[in-house]
Structure formats: C-alpha cells, structure tokens
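Pair request: fold both.
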Amino acid sequence: MARDRSRLQGRDRDVAALRTALMTGRGSLLVLRGPAGIGRSAVLDAVGRSLRAEGLRVLPVRFGAAPVEPGADRYGIASLVHSVRDRFEAFADAGLADSLTPVARLAQAGGGDAGGWTPSMVTELGVLFDRLARGGRTALLADDAHLVAEPAPLLTAARRCGFPVLATCRQDTGPDPGTAELRTAADRVLTLGPLAEGDALALLRRAAGTRLDEAAEAALRAALGPLFTDPGTLLGTLADLQRGDRLTVFRGRLCLRAPAEAIALPAGHPLLARVAEAGPLAPWLLSSVAAWDGVSVDDLPLLAETAGAELTACGRTLDRLIEAGVLVADPAGRVHCRCPALAAAAVDRTKVFRGAGLHAAIAERLLARQRRDAAVDSVALADHIARGSTALAPGADMTARLLDLAGAAAREEPRRAALLCAAVLHRLPPGGAEHTRVLNRLLTLVLRTGQYELLREAIAGATEPDGSPGALDPRAQTRAAAMLVALHTGEPPVGQSVRALLDEELPGPGRTGFSEWWFGARQSGPGVPRGSAPSRWIGVPGFLAADEMEVVQAALSGDADACARAWRATGRPAPCADLDRLCAAAAVVDVATVFHIVLGARYRLPDTGVLGAYRRVVGSHRAADWSRAMSAVRELELSGPADTLVHHAARLFAADICAARGEFRQAAEWLAAAAPAPRLAGLRAWARTGLYHHMGQHRRAIRHARHVSRRLQRAGRHACLDRLLTRAVGIAAYAEDPEAAGQLLEQTERLHRQDGRPRLTESVHLARALAGRDVVHARVAADLARERGDRSLLLESAPVVARFADDPGPWLREAHDLATGCGAAVLLERIRAVTRERGVPAPRARARRRAAGDTERRIVELIGAGLTNRQIAQRLALSEKTVEHYLTRLFARTGCRSRVELAAASLSGRLTTA
C-alpha cells in the first residue's frame, strides 16, 4: 500500500489533510507518528472536532487510560471498553451493552492463546464495532498506540467494520514490534514535524494568557533554538518559567525577569529523560559538554581521566547521546548540546560541574602532567586556567606564559585574550605595578569585546596602591574600570575602596562624583552646572587618550560648546556629521553611542545590559518602532537592582509613546516614575509637553515648553532643547497660535546661532516651516529627517504640514503609514481630522489591506479544518462578530452560500481572497 511519510508542519493543514483522508472511503487506517511533545494528541483532538463538524460520530480511545495494572492491557481492549462506557449514552443503543459485555470479559481475562482466546477476541470486537456502526458512520481515534504491546488487532478490526481509524504513536521509542506491525497494516503513515515558526509564535502567545513581551519571545527563541517549534518543549518551558517566578506581568505585558539569566529546559523534558536512560556517565558527560561549550573526539581522553572513567565507556555514552538527539556534531567534528536551554539545564540540574569547575579540574591534571615533565599543550592549559577556578596556582612561569598568549591572541581573538588577562589579574597583588599594567591591557580588551563582568571581578579586591604609581596611575585605572562596570551593567562595583573612587568630587563649583551623577538623580537646582557630569577622567595609555576622555566627559555633561571644543582639540574637523551625532546621542544620555563615536572600532556596541537596552529604546523610538522601544524599556525596568540615569530617561521615552497611543494614565505614571534629574530637564519637558498636547491641552503644553526652554537657555543647558522647541512650534502651529509659534521660532534660531550644529539647521527649517506655513522649508526638514532615519519626527510634524500644504496627500499618507505601524491612536485620529478638514481622500494603509487578505485566507483554512466561528476567533485573537463580518464579505464576493461550499471552493483552487 502507498504510504505518505512526508513531514507535516502546518497544524491547520495537518488537521485538514487528516480529516480529508478519513472522510474519503470506508475502512481506512492512518498512523500519525512523532516524537514526544510534538503535539500528536492536540492534532488528534482537532481532527475529532473537525469530523464532528462534518456530522461523523467520534470514538476517542486513549491507550493506557484504563484503570488496569501496567502491562495487563496487552491489546488495548480495556482502554476501548473504558472509552465506550464513558460515551454509552451518546450512542443511544440499548443493545450495545450485550455486545460490550463479552469484550469486557476478554479484557478481564488478560489475553493469551489458550482456549481460543485470540479468535474470540477478533470475533467479539467485530460484533462490537458492527453494533457501534449501526447508529451512523463513526471514526475511531486512538491515542498513544505505543503504550500497548499489540495495538494492530483492535484497530484493524475497527477498519474491517468500516470505521475510519486514526492512531498516534511515538516515533522515538526505539524498536517496538507492536507499533511496527501497526505501521505495516496502515494505509498511510504520516510523520508529524515541528510547528511552522508563525504557528509556534501563535501557540506561545495563546498559552501566555497575557500579551507576551517581545524580548521574552526573543529570549525563548534563542534559548530553545531548533526546539522552539516543538510545541511540547515550548509550552513546558513557558510553564516552568512561570512556576519559577521568572515571568511577571509588568504594565500589561508578560515579561521575563532578569533576561540575562539563562533559560533552562524543564526537569521532565524528554531529552533529559533520554540522558538518564543513556547510562550513569551520561549526566556527567552532558554537563561537561555544556560547561566546555562543545568538545571534540580528541578531548575525550582528558574528560575520561577527569571523571575517572574508561575511555571506551565515555565514547559509547557520547554515541548514545548523539543518537538520542541530545548532542549534535558540527561539520568541524565538535559535539554541542542541541540548544542553549539544554546546556543550561545540564549545568544547573545535573549538579555535576557548575561554572568553572570542569576547567579547573582539567587544568589541575594538565599542571600535574607538566610537573612530571610530560608533554602538555600550553595553549589548551592556558585556556583551562583562564576559565577555571581562581584557586589554581599555576606558578610564575605559567603566569608569564598566560600574558604572552594574551598578547598573541589580542588581535585575532580578543575575547580569549581578555579571559587570559583576567586570569593573570586574579594572581597578582592589587595595586602593584604589574597589576596596573595588566589591568590597563584588560580595559582595552573589554572595551573591544563587551565582557564587563571580567572587570567587575578584576577590581573586586582593589586596595590602595603601594608606592609611587609610576607611568600608570593605579587609581585612574581602577576608577576607569569601575565606571565602565557601573555604566554597562547598571550596578555599582563591589568593594568600599572602589566605590570611594567613584564618589570622589573634583575641585570646582557644582562638581559631583560619578556615582551621584549616574545613580543619584539629584533633586536640587535648576540644572547641573557646566562641566559637572562624571568626575574628570584621566587618559589611560592604550585605553583612552586624555583628549578622548575630555570629549566623552564634555559630551556626557550635556554642554554642547564644551563638547565641540574638546572635539576640535583631538584634531578632528568641526562642525561635522560625527560631532552632530555625538551631541545628539549625548543629549539623551545614549552613552553607548557616545563611546562608539569617540572610540570607533575600539569599542563594541553592547546588545545587552543597561546601555544596550537603552540604546534600543532611543533607536527604536527614532525609527517609530515603538513596540520594540517599549519592550526595551520593560527590559530595563526588570534588569538589575539599581536605577541609573538612563532608567529615568527611558521612562520619559515610554511616557511619550504612551501619550501618542492615547494611554494617558500610563504616560502620567511613567512621567512620575522618572526622577526629576536636572540632566534630563529638557527631555522631561519634551515628554510632558507631548502629553499635554495629546490630551488636547494645547495652550498648557505651549506655556510649559516656553517656560522650561527659557529657563534652560538661561542656565546654558542645551541638551534636548532643540527637540523641545521643535515640538512646541508644531503644537503652536496646530493650535493656530501664531504669536507663540513666532516666539518659539525666535528661540530656535537663537539656539542655532549659539551652536550651529547640522541637526539645529534641520530644527530651524522645520520651525520656519511650521511657524511660517512654508512648504519649502518643510520639504528640506523632512528630507534631513529621513536621511537621519528620524521617523518619529516625521510622524509628529507631517499632519501639521498637511494643514497648509498645497498637496496634503503625500504628507498624510506618510503620517498615516507611520502612525498605523507604531499604534499611535491619537495621531491617527488627528490625521483623520486633517483629512476631513482638507477634503482629500482618506489615506489607506497598504499593510492593513494585506493584513485583511491574510486574515480572510486564515479564516478559510480554519473553516476547512472544521473549526467553529468561536474557535476561529480564539485562534486569530479576533471577536466572534469580526469573524462573522469577514464571512459575510467572503460569501458576498465568492457567491458561496455556506461554510462547506467556501471550504470546497478553497480546496479546489476556485477561491480568491483580497
């Protein structure tokens, strides 16, 4: 017989295909196989619902569900009897009991060939199935056929009586004669593959219950890797995170606590069960592979020696784990865990090796060999020492060798070189000349690689330097390391002596220490005086030159004039685009971008941590990707115990997004949560002005912006002042207040004369356009904003320009597309009002038309799968009335008169949707 062994992936298509196969012809037997957790039972239940919708009766049988001794139900008869009795009333046949009683006796007898038991079983099953078929066509859906020794006789008996039969069984149970016989007898054998990516995401979002944060989705996808599309793994990991309090609802989203922490597979996962089945060495070997981040065959002898096991036994166990799908081999021959979540579970749950334990144990054995004058690979030994325990004492010669290897690896392998330098620092007395030199080298490597936790460990035991500092100042080195740790991790470094360095105040009025600037959010004064941001940094050879430190210092102080002077002192041209980008980043305290502009390739832009998350907030807000921006804000809120300056800045961006979306209460809460740090006075006024404007309080917004802008200009604080003035001019123009618009334009032009940066040229063009209703200036400003990728500014200004432009259509279309993409409900309503005011056709979002067509196609597919309107609404996250509306439109356009005709037209290719 023909067999279809193709892998099925789209669950709705799976259900539709199985339903069609069961509906065509009498007496078909289909076998659906797949690994544990792949969703066989869910597909079987969906097929049952679909068949019932077509008018068939369904008899579900769960093998192994009958209350009998394990192994006693050899043929699954007890499970069949249990299922029929549970549904006795549904069959409404008084004579059914007479046919069921002999089968029940056979089940109690336990089976066997003595006394003609097997022929009796076949005969009585035929009588029972004939009786069940009298009331109408009935389908038998049997789940977990692998749980009984011989499922084939029962299922083939049902097929002979005309039943369409669908049975599921495990694919990864190993040799099993019972299911092998069943697959031989089947008309078709289908393998259930993983979910499609979109189906996996839909399943995850439904299971979460609350709207899942985008960062949590990304973290799960990265941790599970190829197992993300395995429904059992996905749902099990989600449930495990909820049980472990790793998920929390924060401002309406289900978010991941401590996103930097690894996500591990749940303890009952089938992969971990296979590890237990692979022998006593398997848990140790798996955790070794996880801790080592992959091993090769050449590493096996050393692993076997470390474990005190035989080499052949380790090799056999490794083969078993690869065959079981627990480990995978890459083309280079290295063996890795199947996904990061499995590696995390191996290290956390098997309790064999944690952290650096494995590397320390191997390093000790290699050092012992070296002391016996045996041949040892010095590079491998150095790597194990670098990753091993700080308790190891390799000796002075090995310490020098580590430094030599670090120098050789610095260019091509900076991450490895940083580990080697950190390992040396652990073995040098703090404050000494050599410790200072190695710390200087480590600072350079950490900036290139982003491994700031290495710096935290390196300066944890820092003490006062002994003697003259020499060419390198130990205090400057330690202060620089402590600042980098605090900036990038969001937590102050440990150790009182190190914190004291950050708290030192420099001479001069209004100066403050770094800790107070970054963690304190001072409450007094109209603004931080010029030059009073972080404590003055000293140039560190090979790390940051003194003039580069001055640029960073001036930029983070928020003083654009001082920043330009420091920039020119480095020999760089000014004005220029890089200086403009530097000032724009510093205005919103985007420290990561500041470092990147000053240091270039010597600095690695972080993806995670406080600065990495905040950089995503700023960049996503500018690109009008507000969902991603809000996800990064939530990540900041749930990462680390301390509030930093960028936490408060991120809350102001969140307030602006919520206000534009019409979520005014949330916007006010975000504003209240942001401490009134003087460094953020301009950004705070910008966010508050936007909130007043979106609430319809235009006059109040203008008054607030004018008051704060005058105060900031008097104090010489220009950070975000251009952003505030541009918004205020737009509000005055929208509120038709030409006097206020003219005064705000005058302030903008004055700021441009004082500063002269290219970004301010754009602000002047836009202010002149809005205040003077000048489309030429508006086009110049819009082109400059598009060149910078500032879509949020376009979204905010385009509706105002559309009120006086000769051709408002392009402005309204661009604004409408942007507002639709980021969910700015208030701005969408404003765009519609301008559209009515100018009497032009309403703009239509192309993305929305495509989405409507996609929704119609999905509804037709789900109808073909046998789902009701309510089930379709739940699947697509729509209301039931919306589904009915789509169906009405489909009936009117296609000429179909029923759901059955619609599904049939779709299957035959006669149906086209929008």
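--- second member of the pair ---
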Amino acid sequence: MTKREMIAILGMVIADDEKKICKLIEYLVNWDEIGIRLLGTAYDGLTALKLINEKKPDILLTDIRMPGMDGLRLIEEAKMQNEILKCIIISGYKDFQYAQQGMRFGVRDYLLKPINQDDLTRTLKKLVKETQEQISIQSTRLHLEETIKNYTGTFKHLFLKTVLQKQLSEQEENILQEVEKMNAADIMKNSARCIAVKPNISYREFTEESYQLLTEKTLEIAEVEFSSHNWIWISEVTEEGIFFLLFSDALDRKELLESINHIKERVLSLQDLFPRLYFNAVVSEQADSCIQLIKRIKESRIAIGNRFLTGLNTVSEIKPPVANANLSSAMDARILKLLEDRPDAFDMEEIKKCVEAAKHIMKAEDITTCLQVKKNLLLLLNYYLNGFKQLDSSLDEHEKESWFSEMYEHCTSLEQTFRLLEDTLCETLMNVLDHLKNREIKPVIYAKHYIEENKGINIKLEELAKNTGFSYTYFSSLFKKETGKTLTEYIQMVRIDTAKKLLTEKERSVSEVAELAGYNDIKFFTRQFKKTLGVSPNEYRKLFTNR
C-alpha cells in the first residue's frame, strides 16, 4: 500500500469574503500531500452554504465576518446537514465570545490572520488524522503496523498513565511492583525527566470546550518543540495538568529549560483566543531507574499543585517540599475546632464568615505544600454539604465535591481557591433552599387550586393534606406560612367569594346562595358573611342592584 493510498482523501470548502485570502490558502497548502481535495470557494455565507449542501465536504474553513451569513451561523446551518463536519474558523477578530460560541457549535480549531503556513498545514493534518482514525478501524493491517511501530512507546505511556492514576500517598515500592509487570527494562533504557505543564483558564471563565482546545494547542506546541530536538517523549493529560516524560542520557538541563520557556511563550501568545490565560511548568531532576522515575513523577504532581506558591507564568525546577507534620497537624486541629464552633443553622453570611476564618488559619501557617490546603478546603466543603444533605436528601454531594476538585485545578491563586469554596457553598445552599421552597410551594398551590375548584365545599382537610404528601399538622403550618391563612380560613374565604358572585344574580334568593356556597344554616351564613365583609348578604346585594 503506497503512502498516497494510506491517506484519507477528504473534501474541503473555503468561505471568506476576501478573495486574496482564499487564493492564499490554495497556494499555501500542499493538497496532495495532506490528503485533501479542495471542492470550491465561496465569498459570502449564503453561497458557501449552498456549496456545502451540493459538495458534501468533510472540512469547512470559514471566516467569521461575511456578507449574507456570518461564519458562526454558517457553521450552525452546515452542521444541521452534516453533524460530523469538521469546522475551522479563520479570523482577524480577537473576540473570545466568537471562540466560545464556535466551540459550542463544534469548531475544531482557529487560525488568526495573517495566516501562517505551518499553523495551517498542522491544523489540516490534524483533522485528516482524526478522520483517518475514524475510518481506519476496518484496516487491521494499519492497526498492526502502528502497534508494532510504537511497541516500546506503549509500555512507556502505560507506565506514566499508571503512576499518575495512583494516590500521592501510595508508596513508590508498591507502584513499582505493579509497573514491573510491564517490562521495566524497556521503559528505562535511557535516563528520564518528568515535566509537568499547566496551561490554565480561570475557573470563572472555564468551559470544557475551551480548556480542551487549550490543552490540544499546548500539546501541539510541545510536540513541535520536542521534535525539533529529536527527543524521545510521551505525554498524558490529567486534571492536574499535562505530564511529559523525556528520555535521553544526554539531556542538557539548560537546553531543556530554554525549550520549556519557549513553549510557555508560545502558549501565552494564544491570549487572543483565551483571555486571562496562565501557564506554569515544573521540571524534575533526572531519574536513572524506575523507582526514581516514579518519585520524580510524584514530585512533579506535588510541584505543579504548588504553583500557587511560585506565582503565575513560571517555569521552575523542582525542589521537593519539606512537609512539617507538626504544622499540618496544628492546621487540621484548628480547622476542626472552627467547624465544631459553627452554628447548626446555615446561611450565606455564616458560610462567608467560616471560609474567611479558615483562610486566616491556613494563611497564618507556613504553607509548604498546597496538598494540605486542598485537604482542608475539602473538609470544609464536605462539612457543609453533609448539612445541606440533611435539609435536602436529593442533593448529590459527591457530584459537588467532584466539580469543586475539578475547578480547584483551574484556580490561579490561593485567594481564588477560597473564593471558589465560598461560591460553591453559597450557590449550593441557594439551590437547596430554592428546591425546598418549590417542594413546599407546589403542594400549597395544589391545595389552593383544589379548594377553589370545589368552591370550598365538602373539603376533607385530612385527605387533602394526605394527597400533598404531608401530615395534616405540618401541612397546615406550611399552608399558613405561604398564604397567611389557615386552611379553614382559606376555605371560608373561597366560600364567601362564591357567595358574593351568586348574590349579584337577582334571580337567586339568599337561602339558595347560602346552600350553593356550602352553608346549610342561613343564620350562620349571614353571620359569617357580615363578619367577613361588614355587611349582610342582603345589604351586599343592594350595593350592586343600586348601581
């Protein structure tokens, strides 16, 4: 099978109102080498959509601003016809809102004007590769060739993945026993270093789509950088960051640091797409054995977690933290004491006071590792979530904890971690209270509707309460809390309102009105009517007949 036959031939449409841009793209791309066939170009959105419907392309490369229909609307319309269409936006507009909206429509990448040939080629190659992987499942031969080609690399990657999945508290010797089953001799043919990289978007601007794109961009930049040195490397992406293992017996430390700084500069240059973008990286010492490499990976995880202590946008060499057990124990004890002293009733102000007090406790200690900070933040979170659970049994506290842990990794400072905790707790409490209110209000609405529908006649209060799912005593207090009236008072009001309407009809006598309103005793009806409105039924009728 020739190289040409191995490449999937994909169709592409270009849409841009600048004809020069379309011609430039045609000129910059080596279409045959990449494996793409240009199906046509369009200079406005409506023509582009017609062309897409006719030619059925696999890839759409479009500008944002075009006459007739803008690029985002074009993508939305085109994806309705072909949901697997791969879309790339090309634009000179540095507006993150366009990027965010594009991600929701499934945009796979962005190119900024002026177009760079290498960026364009790399992006198109990536899309071809993705498509090729989707359609090559049937080709066992290609899969076998790829497996054999990357046989050693597979062991290295499995090693890294396994170590990263372990708890930081797990002993290195225990991890070693597990990874030795993978042919450790192949893993450590060369010395190695671990590099942990954290490209970051503040949790307040975080979306899964934008962070995935940022991670992909960072990996692309690192691949170009590492490949230029002919280094052997593998990578693994986790919530904590992107971890690389570089294998070389002659890996120059200074050269490596310069390369990581170059990656940092390239990533931070993406701020046109990702405002408030941050980058941190840590480089481990060299490892000459599997047990050493396991330790280096663990040190890298701790160090990238400690980025709050080193500042934003830094590349640093790892200095293993010296944990002070006495300080950690003292901090834990003070946080537990703080929670013991909190009142049982939860409200927004109490939560804010507690978080502020915890912040002062933790900042007063000589923090050497952020692991202790995260541990205590989770302690505070779970304390309140358990309390909220008592108020609302439908609350999924595990989902909240998982979300908090994920967003914690997108905080950019210690201060922001406390703000995240406060926001999470206050928002959760608000949702719990809203849910409780809705859960209680709905039965009250049902009861009011039932009473009004039946005009307050023949209402069995015990049965009505039972139908709402509450005991009669509890529901009575709940009803009064929401309406300001007891159930009996509300029924009386509805019956009097019914009588008022009937009294305006001249053909009905007062005794008939009393009976239709559910009163068997006309004297009792008259007393109740006058007590409520200050006039007798006859006097009320005269007020209307004299108008």
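Observation on the second member. The first strand starts at residue 10 and ends at 15.
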